[in-house]
Amino acid sequence: MSATADRASQTAGGGRAKTSFPWSRFPAGWAVESASSERFSARLIWLLVPIQYYVLTHLAGGVAVGDLLSVVVLTMTSFIALFFLSFLLASFVAWRNPDQDRRALTRMWMIALLMGTTCTYAVFALSLWIGIRQGLTADVVGDFLFWRSADGVRIPGLNYQTIASYLIYSSIAMLLILLIRLMSWRMASRTTAALAEPPFFVVAVFVTAVMSGINIFATF
Amino acid sequence: MKRLFLSAGLVIQMCGVSVAFDDSSVCERLTKEGPGLYLAYPDGPKASATFKCEGSGYCFSRIGSQNLFDDYGRLFLVSATTPPGEEVVWHVRMQTRARNLDSADLAYLSRPTTTTRCSPTEALPTFPSSSFPLGPFSPLNDYIDHHEGRPVGLLTRYFHFQIQETPGSKRCISTDNRAAFRDQKNIYGFENVERLPKEVAQALTIRTAQASANAYAGLSSEFIYRDDPKLPCFGFGLPQPTRSAFLNEKINWAPYQTKIWIKRFRGKQITAEGDANGRVIQWLQ
């Protein structure tokens, strides 16, 4: 569904409107609906810290186990990158839609990118855990792409296979989030947020970019 | 004129020290001496009185308390007899200390480039320059990571290889199969060699940078493969420096001690090669 169509179905007063299911939109609107939901979603993103610790200390060429300081710095770097990107993206959306609250948009984009990153890292960590347990050469997707390449490639590394594999993981994470929204949509009220929620595609692309940057940086 | 120079060059080479000697002929001779670890040099001025020189282009001696280090020398292992009709796989790991160099940051890797029973039609590929810009020298952290549960695909593909699961079996397993070889740190890992700190970590902490230095200047890990060998013997090169900063430079390499481990793989079964496992070799310059 297009952004225009989504917006058309929203009430002008900033409330919620009954509408069809927003397939292409990341469900971040609920997070800025109230102070309590915003606090809850802000706490959820701390899940990223232990998940990222597992990933960075189990990646080939990654950070040494026990090197907490490096992991904390890398995690903080990813937070800062995500905050910065959220600000840029929200500013762009606000510029295109002057009627929307810029501050609320920024908060919504922050939550979307942070939740997207957390979920993507969780899927990747699971895949890495399975890969290590099953004796693969990397995580499940990375192993497949490694053997498909003629000479084998270093994953993570500065190559398209790394970005392709992370894009697959972020797409899986977006699909999972979409499924959760779909389930809650059927059980709860069928309404969408007043603000233009971030498109899944954009969240997936930026999450992939941040994840690639952090994971490759961790191997230096 | 060009031909004249070429011929002259060949004559000079023939008169000089022959640096490459045939492992099989040396093995044939050493097998008569019995099992053990030997050192062989091309016949020349460096060969001392303790060496046996029999006019066949090389001199040899059993590894003793002091051993003369020579760039052109080779080590030989004469093993106990190998069962007939089987493929034989040895793994040789060496850690060398030098007077003028420490802290290796690479590991020299080697494996057969022939066909094997598990790859009967296709020879095992060599290290591709696209993935291994330093040839057979791999980053030390990759080597450590791979054998401590953080798989590095390139090492599975270009260093480890498939061997028969049990002698004569049609099923094959990789030498880094984690189900078959659980404690790979113990099998392949370097003793008292820690992972080098990442540049990220180095920039952030002083502790990891100080703790990282290892005392070894040369680290190597080599597979030797023989299909139904007539003689239970093989030769391999002497240790070399594995520090990236000096890789292509002529340095006065002064090793004084090498610790060596030789293991034999019989499918999933690994046995240590007698006194060559965990043995310390002292070098003289």
Low-pLDDT runs of chain A? 1-16
Strand content of chain B: 25-35%
Strands of the widest sheet of chain A, in order across it, are 1-2
| Beta-strand segment tally of chain A | 2
Distance between the termini of chain A: 41 Å
Q: Give the number of domains of chain B.
A: 1
Q: How many separate helices of chain B?
A: 7
Of all chain pairs, the largest interface belongs to: A-B, 31 and 29 residues
Distance between the termini of chain B: 41 Å
Helix and strand run of chain A = HEHHHHHHEH
The assigned structural class of chain A equals: mainly alpha
Helix content of chain A: 55-70%
User: What's the overall geometry of chain A?
Assistant: globular
Helix content of chain B: 10-25%
Main pleated-sheet profile of chain A? 2 strands, antiparallel
Order of helices and strands of chain B: HHEEEEEEEEHHEEHHHEEEEE
Oligomer: heterodimer
Q: Radius of gyration of chain A, Cα only, in angstroms?
A: 18 Å
Radius of gyration of chain B: 20 Å
What is the overall number of helices of chain A? 8
**Total domains of chain A:** 1
Fold and architecture overview:
The complex is a heterodimer of chains A (220) and B (285). Chain A has one domain (3-7, 27-218). Chain A is mainly α. In chain A, 46% of the residues are buried. The longest helix of chain A is centred in the middle third of the chain and has 32 residues, at 102-133. Chain A has eight helices and two strands, in the order αβααααααβα. Chain A has a two-stranded antiparallel ribbon with strand order 1-2. Chain B is an alpha+beta fold. Helices cover 19% and strands 29% of the residues of chain B. Chain B is built from seven helices and 15 strands. The longest helix of chain B has 14 residues, at 2-15. Chain B is globular and about 55 Å long. The termini of chain B are far apart. Chains A and B meet through helix 4 and helix 6 of A and helix 3, helix 4 and helix 6 of B.
